[in-house]
Write a structure and sequence with these properties.
The structure holds three protein chains of three kinds. Chain A is mainly β. Chain A has one domain. Chain A is built from four helices and 18 strands. Chain A has helices spanning 68-77, 307-314, 320-336, 342-359, and strands at residues 40-42, 49-52, 80-86, 89-100, 106-115, 120-129, 136-145, 150-157, 164-173, 178-185, 190-199, 205-214, 219-228, 234-243, 248-257, 265-274, 280-289, 295-303. A nine-stranded mixed sheet of chain A has the order 1-4-6-8-10-12-14-16-18, with helices on one face. The longest helix of chain A is centred in the last third of the chain and has 18 residues, at 342-359. The radius of gyration of chain A is 20 Å and the shape is globular. Chain A starts with 39 loop residues before the first strand and ends with a helix. Chain B has a domain at 4-93 and 166-254: Rossmann fold (3-Layer(aba) Sandwich). Chain B is built from eight helices and ten strands. In chain B, 37% of the residues lie in helices and 26% in strands. Chain B has a six-stranded mixed sheet with strand order 6-7-8-3-9-10, sandwiched between helices. Chain B has a four-stranded antiparallel sheet with strand order 2-1-4-5. Chain C has two domains: 27-305, no CATH class; 419-471, no CATH class. In chain C, strand 3 and strand 4 form a beta hairpin. The longest helix of chain C is centred in the last third of the chain and has 17 residues, at 432-448. Chains A and C meet through strand 17 and strand 18 of A and strand 24 and strand 25 of C. Strand 17 (280-289) of chain A pairs antiparallel with strand 24 of chain C. Chain B: Residues 6-248 form the ABC transporter domain. Chain B: It comes from Blautia liquoris. Chain B: InterPro entries: AAA+_ATPase (IPR003593), ABC_transporter-like_ATP-bd (IPR003439), ABC_transporter-like_CS (IPR017871), FeS-cluster_ATPase_SufC (IPR010230), P-loop_NTPase (IPR027417).
Chain lengths: 362, 256, 472
């Protein structure tokens, strides 16, 4: 199949290879239409949240960052689905976990949150796999946030190195809605992530924070888009990552101020640490603008850590390695701090530490 | 001919989409040659008052009017007010990249005088004023306020005051961020500027800048109104004892 | 409440009358529209090309027919290439002295201020008028230093043939893209410059184009070779009168910067608003060398313009400072490209762009760091100013980094003129219109100060006129 995935909203020079995701991301066949629900673990729902059978908004009215071709693929092929309607403010974090197992190697998940006016929800999705399973995980999460609702979606991906992953998110925000997506991406052989937020309502806001770590021959491909339609809308995108081994990554981050998005504000920032001789980083931070009264900024810092910061820490007694660890942990903190499970947080932190030590320049 | 330079009558001012009221019923008269001081707790509207006199479009006049030399300027544009002779030294002066201090001053002077200044005379004057204010001559070539420290920005405002020679100078916390010597210098600059025909309205929290100045009136602005007016001794009293006492006394005053 | 927004300055079309003087076209030799083998053959013959150049043109034509128009960037549908006459030569053979150039051609340059500039201590002027170099001059000092500054045709057949052949379209091969192939097939006119080892050319060399005949394209080729340790500043500026028929500019500039040499290339592009400006500029820099681009884009209907630098030698450096001002009916897609192909190379890209009255301004960049370019540093800063909500400003930067021992930084900002800044300037007596013009002038200042004075003045005037929307 040669669908176009993770398309850059405005094309640029083809030789850069960033206009869309590469061939390695061709979508897999989903072998059986049998439900994979047993591979989905979910927490007990509180009274303010209800599981519904169908998501009230059609796929074509909410496009993910990976693209409509991908959304249609999920619509046709999903073998597990999980839709939540949130009616009020919810204290408890909802947790789900999908697992790739030897007997169910291809998982196509269709997920969604429909947040009623003034409601709130935190949902953490974990994506894991059995050691022996070599599979495919494709997921789509749609978030429809009605007036003044607040939704935080946390995604932690820790799949094994023989499994490939696709994860699309589509967001629609009404007046005053606040949507946050927090991603910690560490596993899989290769992974395509695409989020798209439509900030239609005035004063709606979107925050996207991502950390990732690639080594060996992992390939990550991101396409994150924020479309500002409403007045006083706000986007903050923050990405911090480490590339090691022979891995590579493409990050496309687009902030699009449509005409009428008066007083909108968009900030994008990326920090990439590159380790080793063979890594490849591609970054394409777009700002598209048709409205005068906006504020848009993006900043990218790629390469090495700040020598003056390292020196400062060393002057306080840390070893160079400790100093580097501290700085990198600092970059990852905004995401790790938001993971509501201390044990999981510790696991992720130690995985990162271990991989850093393995890949530290000699 | 009247001696009144600035006459503010029953001024009400609000700000923002929700029309939040900041000033209500402010009356203030400044005659030629006078120095007035405006004090009050933070957030009561002192900056709002001087910004409104200057015509800041962020503020909406809900009642009253502003007269300058007898002319109603309540609806006039900012640059018209500037050309009539009103000057505001900003609390946070704007950075204007790409425009040098000298170029800017020459243009402003030309705008206010109605014709470009004679180059030689202008440059001589600029050099002299910069020296008197202790501003490094290289600053003339620097972009206006870009990268200037807080204190340097304030000094640059006073430099503009001295070069433009307005009829009314509104100084919004010109002393904040300045070290002791700089405050003295700025105070001297104000003294040099002030004469029998022009007037000054100073917003400040400290006594240092007022030393050496002949203060005529001190006003306390609180909760959007001028609650008390006194002579220069009022300033020392506030500085020593704070506003709390003032509030009590002003309430008493109003009861009378 | 008084509101600045309700009284926005409505800027009208800038007065271009001084640039729009048309002479009646008397071409001595005109090629029929469209591009066929016969036409390319004709051009080659008329120019008395050496055999290798004729072959080169034919190969380029083949490539031109194979390669597609780019699928990215502004729409080129209205550019009907078959209608573009590729070659027009005015009546006059080349002249050595200004006084011998025909009057109407002289008048055109007079109106555009060229002789004055020439008198004012420039080393020499090559002026291009409808595909042939009309007038050429080089002062004695530059010539005595061994500097070669001549038209491309002479260079092709004269004593420098070998040097030209070695370098011609090696940096921008015809296979690069469709308009490079077109250029390779029909190029005509242009400048050849060679600066010998260690020679510092004190005064900038300047070349000026003009496009006059309706429908004619400009395919001039500029080849600059600066040898080890030498220094050159080259200025390119151009203008064209307005016509109904589409005008195309597919020129090519190739700059070879030798070891420890330094080249500065300044351009103010002010083509009239029906021009398609698809120019390709590229520099290759050897060890320790540096290239500085200064670029102001004001004219054209559609522009594709991305000067590219290949930092081939260790420690080489690239500096790019540019401004783009897109007004009504304009879609200007400009930026810069750099490839760090050696260790300890550095690059700095600083651009500003302004859009108003429905104009579209796009900043497009590509920073590539090859594996092995250890210790390299690159920083890109682009700032965009929107003057109303009828226009567009897009920023499309891309970075491709394959070396972990490199530092790449990028920042972009977009916004509008700060109302507080306008208030501040008005509080000092400037009218609202003047305050805005001041701020935009200040915005453009980092570029203006890189240009020689008369260009900076021309640029500031252009900006002021655009901002004030009033007749000069």
């Amino acid at each position: 199949m040669n669908e176009q995935l993770n398309n850059l909203p405005v094309l640029t020079w083809n030789h850069l290879g960033v206009n869309r995701a590469g061939q390695e991301f061709a979508l897999p066949e989903v072998p059986q239409l049998e439900s994979a629900e047993k591979n989905l673990t979910m927490s007990v729902l509180p009274s303010t949240v209800e599981r519904i059978q169908e998501f009230p908004i059609d796929y074509k009215d909410m496009e993910s960052g990976i693209g409509s071709a991908y959304d249609n693929y999920i619509a046709k092929n999903s073998n597990v689905s999980y839709f939540l309607k949130v009616k009020q403010e919810t204290e408890q974090t909802i947790r789900t976990k999908t697992c790739i197992t030897p007997d169910h190697k291809t998982l196509a998940g269709d997920f969604g949150i429909y947040a009623e006016e003034g409601s709130s929800l935190v949902w953490m999705q974990e994506s894991v796999s059995d050691e022996e399973a070599a599979g495919f995980s494709t997921e789509l999460t749609r978030i429809y946030a009605k007036k003044n609702s607040r939704v935080r979606l946390i995604q932690v991906q820790n799949l094994n190195r023989s499994t490939a992953c696709w994860n699309g998110v589509a967001i629609y925000a009404e007046d005053g809605a606040k949507v946050e997506v927090v991603r910690a991406i560490l596993g899989s052989s290769h992974a395509a992530y695409g989020t798209r937020a439509e900030l239609k309502g005035r004063e709606s806001s979107y925050q996207l924070e991502t950390i990732y770590f690639t080594d060996q021959s992992q390939i990550y491909d991101f396409n994150d888009v924020a479309n500002h339609y409403g007045k006083n809308t706000q986007t903050d995108m923050y990405t911090a990552g480490v590339l090691a081994g022979e891995s590579s990554k493409i990050l496309r981050g687009t902030i699009d101020f449509k005409k009428g998005a008066v007083y909108a504000v968009g900030h994008e920032s990326e920090e990439v640490l590159m380790l080793g001789e063979k890594v490849r980083n591609r970054t394409v931070p777009l700002i598209l603008c048709a409205e005068e009264q906006v504020e848009g900024q993006h900043a990218a810092s790629i390469g090495r850590l700040d020598e003056t910061q390292i020196y400062y820490l060393i002057s306080r007694g840390l070893t160079p390695l400790q100093a580097r660890m501290l700085l990198i942990e600092g970059r990852f903190a905004p995401v790790l701090d938001k993971i509501p499970d201390e044990q999981l947080r510790e696991e992720l932190a130690s995985q990162i530490e271990r991989r850093l030590k393995e890949n530290e320049p000699k | 001919m009247s001696d009144t330079l600035l006459d503010i009558q029953n001024l009400g001012v609000s700000v923002g989409d929700d029309h939040h009221k900041i000033l209500s019923g402010v009356d203030l008269k400044i005659n030629k040659g006078e120095i007035h001081v405006l004090m009050g707790p933070n957030g009561t509207g002192k900056s709002t008052l001087v910004s409104t006199i200057m015509g800041d479009p962020r503020y909406e006049i809900t009642s009253g009017r502003i007269l300058f030399e007898g002319k109603d300027i309540t609806d006039e544009k900012t640059d018209v007010r500037a050309r009539l002779g009103i000057f505001l030294s900003f609390q946070s002066p704007e950075e204007i990249p790409g425009v040098t201090v000298e170029n800017f001053l020459r243009t402003a002077k030309g705008a206010i005088d109605g014709r470009p200044p004679k180059i030689f005379k202008f440059e001589k004057e600029l050099k002299a004023q910069m020296e008197a204010l202790g501003i490094d001559p290289s600053y003339a070539e620097r972009y206006l306020n870009v990268g200037f420290s807080g204190g340097e920005k304030k000094k640059a405002e006073i430099l503009q005051l001295l070069m433009l020679q307005p009829k009314l100078a509104l100084l919004d916390e010109t002393d904040s961020g300045l070290d002791v010597d700089a405050v003295k210098t700025v105070s001297k600059g104000i003294q040099n500027y002030h004469n029998k025909t022009n007037s000054v309205l100073i917003i400040t929290h400290s006594a240092k800048i007022l030393e050496g100045l002949d203060i005529d009136y001190v006003h306390i602005l609180e909760k959007g109104k001028i609650v008390k007016t006194g002579g220069s001794e009022l300033a020392s009293e506030i500085i020593e004892r704070g506003f709390e006492n003032m509030e009590k006394r002003s309430d008493e005053y109003e009861k009378l | 409440m008084r509101n600045f927004d309700s009284e926005k300055t409505d800027v009208k079309e800038v007065d271009r009358s001084v640039y729009d003087i048309k002479d009646e076209s008397h071409p001595a030799f005109e090629v029929h529209s469209g591009l066929t083998e016969d036409i390319v053959s004709q051009i080659s013959e008329e120019k008395h090309d050496p055999a290798w150049m004729r072959v080169f043109r034919m190969k380029s034509l083949e490539l031109y027919n194979e390669i597609q128009v780019p699928d990215w960037g502004p729409d080129l549908d209205d550019l009907h290439l078959d209608d573009i006459k590729t070659y027009v030569r005015p009546d006059t053979p080349m002249r050595g002295k200004w006084s011998e150039v025909p009057q109407d051609i002289k008048d055109t340059f007079d109106r555009l201020g060229i002789p004055k500039a020439e008198r004012k201590s420039l080393a020499g002027v090559g002026a291009q008028y409808d595909s042939e170099v009309v007038y050429h001059n080089i002062t004695e000092t530059a010539a005595a230093q061994g500097v070669i500054f001549t038209d491309m045709e002479s260079a092709l057949t004269g004593p420098h043939e070998e040097m030209v052949r070695k370098h011609f379209m090696k940096l921008v091969p015809p296979s690069d893209h469709k308009f490079a192939a077109l250029h390779g097939a029909v190029w005509s006119g242009g400048t050849f410059v060679y600066v010998p080892k260690g020679v510092k050319v004190e005064i900038p060399l300047q070349s000026y184009f003009r496009l006059n005949a309706p429908g004619a394209g400009q395919f001039e080729h500029t080849l600059i070779i600066v040898d080890k340790g030498a220094y050159l500043h080259f200025i390119e500026g151009c203008s064209a009168p307005k016509y109904n028929v589409n005008n195309l500019h597919a020129g090519c500039v190739e700059i070879f910067v030798g070891e420890n040499a330094r080249v500065r290339y300044s351009t103010i592009e002010n083509w009239s608003k029906n021009m398609y400006n698809l120019n390709t500029k590229r520099a290759r820099v050897e060890k320790g060398g540096s290239i500085e681009w200064v670029s102001g884009s004001f004219g054209s209907h559609i522009s594709y313009l991305y000067p590219m630098s290949i930092l081939k030698g260790e420690g080489s450096h690239m500096e790019f400072t540019g401004i783009t001002f897109a007004g009504n009916g304009q879609n200007l897609d400009t930026g810069a490209k750099v490839v760090h192909a050696a260790p300890h190379t550095t690059s700095n890209i600083t651009t500003k762009s302004i859009s108003r009255d429905g104009g579209i301004s796009t900043f497009r960049s590509s920073v590539k760091v090859a594996p092995g370019a250890a210790g390299s540093k690159s920083s890109v800063s682009c700032e965009s100013l929107m003057l109303d909500d009828r226009s567009r400003s897009d920023t499309i930067p891309a970075m491709d980094i394959q070396c972990s021992d490199a530092d790449v930084g990028h920042e972009a900002k977009i916004g509008r003129i700060s109302e507080q800044a306008v208030f501040y300037l008005m509080s000092r007596g400037l009218s609202e219109e003047d305050a805005r013009a001041f701020i935009v002038g200040g915005f453009a200042e980092p570029i203006a100060k890189e240009l020689p004075l008369e260009y900076a003045v021309e640029m500031n005037n252009l900006i002021t006129l655009e901002m004030k929307g009033s007749i000069g």
